[in-house]
Design a protein that fits this description.
Order of helices and strands: EHEHEHEHEHEHEHEEEEEEEEEHHEH
Strand content: 25-35%
Radius of gyration: 20 Å
Shape: globular
Number of helices: 10
CATH superfamily of the largest domain: Dihydrodipicolinate Reductase, domain 2
InterPro entries: Gfo/Idh/MocA-like_OxRdtase_N (IPR000683), Gfo/Idh/MocA_oxidoreduct (IPR051317), GFO_IDH_MocA-like_dom (IPR055170), NAD(P)-bd_dom_sf (IPR036291)
Keywords: Oxidoreductase
Number of strands: 17
Distance between the termini: 39 Å
Structural class: alpha/beta
Strand order of the largest sheet: 16-15-12-11-7-10-9-8-17
GO molecular function: nucleotide binding; oxidoreductase activity
Pfam families: GFO_IDH_MocA, GFO_IDH_MocA_C3
Organism: Devosia ginsengisoli
CATH topology of the largest domain: Dihydrodipicolinate Reductase, domain 2
Number of domains: 2
């Protein structure tokens, strides 16, 4: 059993408190922290959390409790200082993405976790779904030989789907595409080499910054990924993980994941198509803990056993996903010029 403190009880944090943490039996909650008294009151009133387990500061909680893990579910700009303090206090940490605002901050947190012998995990919840796991295994087994081209489309119409963050900088690349970029790395078992990206904001858009983008990404093993994403699409809605076509030497692997739309959840899908053949559905194995429960159960198991599983999104591994986000943003600011990932990782 892993004793945990949750830090950050706002809108998304409360979702963790209510919908995620109770579903992971290896987590035993000992404390809840938020600097906003109203957030504290909500978990007490709505979830029946005892007052003695609620704190207005992390240091106060750490002094009064014995804990192994901090579950950091705060706004992005608070990630770096809070995660840093959690690691200094000797806690293992799971934190929402992106785990830092800059590569320099991310490196500092990774090194601090190493120095203190603690686990730092980024909650890349899209990894914990049947379709991307199966796709990664099929690619790893060279089901259809080497990958030639990956095409990914993400389409949503934010104004009609309850989106709220109209003034967020880089609402596509930093807030949404980071999931797709991280999945690229996981499924291909490879890291990006360079990227070219263009973004724009269409007429009559409520966004303050660019909600549409296209990117070409070259990976170290030579695979090229063509990516198109839009928060202002009038086309058919895609699953949250997008629609993927992975064109290999002897056939295609076609899949989608997290098919949630207007409150309805659909299954992950994956099909195989041999060259010149018809697409055939591939049976997907169910997983015990999916999405955010998967990330939380994963770090709990690492803390309990000390063994790091395949496709574990450590802070060190996630530096490459963070770098990919920052490289695409940089390329877009340079009107689509190629940006080497090494430039961002320096």
């Amino acid at each position: 059993m892993v004793k945990a403190i949750q830090v950050g009880l706002g809108h998304w944090g409360f979702s963790w408190t209510k919908e995620v943490i109770p579903k992971v039996p290896s987590i035993h909650m000992v404390g809840y922290v938020d600097s906003n008294p109203e957030a504290i009151k909500r978990v007490q009133d709505e979830l029946g959390i005892e007052e003695k387990r609620c704190f207005l500061s992390l240091d106060e909680a750490a002094q009064g409790l014995e804990a192994d893990l901090a579950i950091c579910t705060l706004r992005t700009e608070a990630h770096y200082p809070v995660v840093k303090r959690c690691l200094e206090l000797g806690l293992n940490v799971i934190v929402e993405k992106p785990f830092a605002s800059t590569i320099a901050q991310g490196r500092e947190l990774v090194e601090l976790a190493k120095a203190n012998g603690r686990v730092l995990m980024v909650s890349q919840n899209y990894r914990f779904q049947p379709a991307p796991i199966a796709a990664a295994e099929l690619i790893g087994a060279q089901k259809f030989g080497p990958v030639n081209l990956v095409s990914i489309d993400f389409r949503r119409h934010a104004p009609s789907q309850g989106y709220r963050y109209w003034d967020m900088p880089d609402p596509l690349l930093a807030d949404m595409s980071i999931h797709h970029f991280d999945l690229m790395r996981m499924v291909l078992n490879d890291n990006p080499k360079r990227v070219s990206c263009r973004t724009w904001n269409p007429a009559a858009s409520p966004f303050g910054h660019h909600p549409i983008g296209v990117a070409t990404l070259e990976f170290e093993k030579g695979t090229i990924v063509s990516y198109r994403g839009s928060w202002m699409s009038s086309g058919p809605v895609t699953p949250w993980s997008g629609e993927w076509t992975m064109d290999c030497s002897e056939g295609e692997i076609i899949w989608s994941s997290r098919d949630h739309f207007m409150g309805k959840a659909g299954p992950d899908r994956l099909s195989l198509r041999e060259r010149d053949g018809e697409a055939v559905a591939f049976p997907l194995e169910p997983i015990e803990f999916a999405d955010r429960t998967g990330t939380l159960a994963s770090i709990a198991k690492v803390i309990e056993t000390g063994a790091i599983p395949a496709r574990f999104s450590s802070g060190e591994d996630n530096l490459h996903s963070l770098a990919l986000v920052q490289a695409t943003i940089l390329s877009a600011s340079r009107h689509g010029e190629w940006v080497e990932i090494a430039e961002v990782l320096q």
